[in-house]
Amino acid sequence: MTRIIVVGGGAGGLELATKLGRTLGRKRRASITLVDRKASHLWKPLLHEVATGSMDAGVDALSYRAHAKNHSFDFQMGSLQSIDRERKVIKLAALYDEQNELLMSERELEYDILVMAIGSTSNDFNTPGVRENCIFLDSPEQAHRFRTEMNNQFLKLHANKDQQTVDIAIVGGGATGVELSAELHNAVKELQNYGFGDLDSSRLNVNLVEAGERILPALPPRISGAAHSELTKLGVNVRTATMVTKADETGLTTKDGDHIPAQIMVWAAGIKAPDFMKEIAGLETNRINQLVVKPTLQTTRDDDIYVIGDLASCVQEDGSFVPPRAQAAHQMASRCFSNIVAKMTDREQKPYVYSDHGSLVSLSRFSTVGSLMGNLTKGSMMVEGRIARIVYISLYRMHQIALHGMFKTGLMMLVGRINRVLRPNLKLH
After folding, report:
1. At how many degrees (to 10) do helices 326-344 and 385-404 cross?
2. Which of 36, 45, 226, 261 is the S-S candidate for 251 at Cβ 3.0 to 4.6 Å?
3. Distance (Å, rounded) from C-alpha 20 to C-alpha 17?
4. Helix (H, G, I), strand (E, B) or coil at 13
5. Rounded to whole angstroms, what are the CA distances from 171 to 15, 54, 177?
């Protein structure tokens, strides 16, 4: 029986393991194992909502073990330590609890086909003080840390009449930074309903700092312009062409020597693959530690190892690289699945071609802007407001359908509507 291991339970890895389990695992044509260092999965594009309390991770997170049981694959909790390509084994590091007691010792898992899908982490570009003073919004733990600090600052503001504002600086004008900026203003509006009547947007000072000439540089200028004006209307101070050179406990220092005061700092200015991936097992990597792949998503130096999602450095026919987006991970999971099946049945594997279905950025309840790459229109079609919000949410629904199927996703949507009546609009604890 073919042994397939998927390392990383993010958007792409979990969808792939689910699909492999439903088809090959259920029919006992292969044994599928998913490895992740966490016990549960949360869709990464929603972390800004977890950070501000608009979403409760305890309700929306998915247990890997329960999901594995329902979809005919195995789950192993652990962190990848090394890959031995000759013996075809991966080594998982020892697992300890919060008191540093050993839970599971080091162990090895054998594979015939290995899929690497461990995603990316924030790239601080070795900027002094960033690692010590900034929050990286790239995991649920960091999102919880942000929410705790945010709530503490609002409590201080509420209790201390001398303090005028809560100052929050967000570095990086990509989707995460833009969405978090808007979500913060939504949180303030909601907090007014929960005993913080003296709070309003004028007492929240959000600086969104972008080194480039405009925010959302991956999107067409008219869309980033629309998002810029929406944020400005909300009261966000958008600072473009501003490079941060240092962070300390009082705030950020820019290249021009300006000081941006902040009690909370978030770094969302780029991604890289984890440092331990650099030339792991002799595989080819690029300058941000991504594994370089062929068009079939196989690594350039080992045809038994596939890479999907943010970890893959995948060049397209026009010379551009596949962007690190959830929709790319979703598409890669589908292509990787069909290529693995083709490999097992000695059929030809097909190249992965990125299809840009457009980008949407949620400005919380205020607006959603973005472009849909029109199959009906030539080029892209700009969408705004309610329609864009529906399409933005539908991207998450597509992910849920890939994991649970139509019926269960429909039930989840119903439960979500019920929770809107039963639960507070913000997670307050």
Report:
1. 30
2. 261
3. 5
4. helix
5. 31, 21, 7
First to last CA, the chain: 47
Compute the CA torsion angle 236, 239, 243, 249 (nearest 10 deg).
-30
* Alpha-carbon distance values, 332 to 21, 297, 313, 369 (Å): 17, 8, 12, 25
Beta bridge partners of 267: 136, 171
What is the CB neighbour count within 10 angstroms for residue 99? 5
The 10s digit of each residue's pLDDT in 242-256 is 999 999 999 999 999
3-state DSSP assignment of residue 332: helix
Burial of 106 (0-12, 13-18, 19+ CB in 10 A): exposed
Q: How far is CA 310 from CA 156, 294, 325, 337, in A?
A: 38, 15, 7, 17
Q: Chain centroid to CA 202: how far?
A: 30
Instruction: DSSP for 144-177, please give it.
Output: HHHHHHHHHHHHHHHH-TT---EEEEEE--SHHH
Q: Please give the structure tokens belonging to residue 407.
A: 């019926």
Give the rounded distance of the alpha carbon of 383 from its chain centre: 23
Q: Among 14, 301, 240, 255, which Cα is nearest to 127's?
A: 255
Q: Do the beta carbons of residue 396 and residue 375 sit within 8 Å?
A: no
Q: What is the pLDDT of residues 123-138, one digit of tens each?
A: 999 999 999 999 999 9
pLDDT at 20: 98
| CA 336/CA 111 separation, integer angstroms | 16
Which 3 state secondary structure label does DSSP give 212? Answer: coil
- Do 252 and 209 form a contact (C-beta atoms < 8 A)? yes
Q: Output the pLDDT for position 373.
A: 55
**DSSP assignment letter at 270:** -
